[in-house]
Amino acid sequence: MIEITALAFLLMGVVALVSPHSITRWVAITTLPVPARNEVRAVYGGYGVAMAVLLVVCRDQPQWRDGVVVTLSMALLGMAVGRLLSWLVDRRLDRYPALFMVIEIVLGLGLLISL
Q1: How many of the other CB atoms lie within 10 Å of CB of 66?
Q2: What digits encode the pLDDT tens for the residues 87-107?
Q3: Across residues 17-44, what is the average pLDDT?
Q4: Could you tell me the CA-to-CA distances from 13 to 18, 20, 86 in Å, in that order?
Q5: In terms of Cα–Cα distance, which of 40, 37, 51 is closest to 8?
Q6: What pLDDT was estimated at residue 55?
Q7: What is the domain partition of the chain in residue ranges?
């Protein structure tokens, strides 16, 4: 599960770095001024790639593994809870945010189970 999650973070990160619009169009944000592109590249791109690298490195660092896995699991599950809360408040959950929430739950729980 560590490798699958690393691949998911890497894919998200690389896409966000190369084409920020590819990330935001999934949630109906079609125009990105320069500061917004910078934000997408930082938060989705840089973070995603860094988390992928961290997951790969922690496989060979037993002293890091459990902490990294728990931390990233909680980050993923926290994102899913944020989406759930938004759904409750807005009374609407569109297809892609719902898909992302399912992916976050599956990866987050999968990481915890891998411990």
Answers
A1: 11
A2: 999 999 999 999 999 999 999
A3: 94
A4: 9, 10, 24
A5: 51
A6: 95
A7: 2-113
Cα 8 to Cα 49, 85, 93: the distances in Å are: 10, 23, 22
pLDDT digits (tens, 9 = 90+) for 51-67: 999 999 998 899 999 99
Owner of token pair 């770095």: 17
Decide if 76 contacts 44 (C-beta within 8 A). no
- Rg of the chain over CA atoms, in angstroms? 15
Give the length of the chain.
115
Closest residue by Cα to residue 25 from 114, 96, 112: 96
Amino acid 43: pLDDT: 94
DSSP per residue over 1-69, as a string?
Answer: -HHHHHHHHHHHHHHHHH-HHHHHGGGT-----HHHHHHHIIIIIIHHHHHHHHHHHHTT-HHHHHHHH
